[in-house]
Specification:
By secondary structure, the chain is mainly β. It has no helices and eleven strands. Strands 2, 4, 5, 6, 9, 10 and 11 form a seven-stranded mixed sheet that branches. The protein has a four-stranded antiparallel sheet with strand order 1-3-8-7, with no helix packed on it. A hairpin with a 6-residue loop joins strand 4 and strand 5.
């Protein structure tokens, strides 16, 4: 079982930046691929970014490519998502998730989820 707790959300002006963090409870954190997803009101949960076990491989949704960076610190059991040039359409609840796969981009492949953190981008 992996427990995930996100932090760092809040209200940001368009064009601004933020850094989300997700702390995991499990000591074998390095054995899990990690991802960030988001869900806006009335929409399905969508993929944002993913990172492999060791951090050597990453994947990004087209909508955030060039604006987002996912990273992980296995010593701290923490994964981060940094985003800049934020847009109102980035407004959503952001979730981190863990998968036993090396790296994954689909919601269904993730085994564990955090409770989410709200990000609101004002225009």
């Amino acid at each position: 079982q992996v427990q995930l707790v996100e932090s760092g959300g809040g209200l940001v002006q368009a064009g601004g930046s933020l850094r989300l963090a997700c702390a995991a409870s499990r000591r074998t954190f390095g054995n899990y691929g990690l991802g960030w997803f988001r869900q806006a009101p009335g929409k399905e949960r969508e993929f944002v970014a993913a990172i492999s076990w060791s951090g050597g491989s990453t994947s990004y949704a087209n909508s955030v490519t060039g604006r987002a960076t996912i990273s992980r610190d296995n010593a701290k059991n923490t994964v981060y998502l940094e985003m800049n040039s934020l847009k109102p359409e980035d407004t959503a609840v952001y979730y981190c998730a863990a998968t036993v796969q090396f790296i994954a981009t689909k919601v269904a492949t993730y085994n564990y989820w955090g409770q989410g953190t709200q990000v609101t981008v004002s225009s």
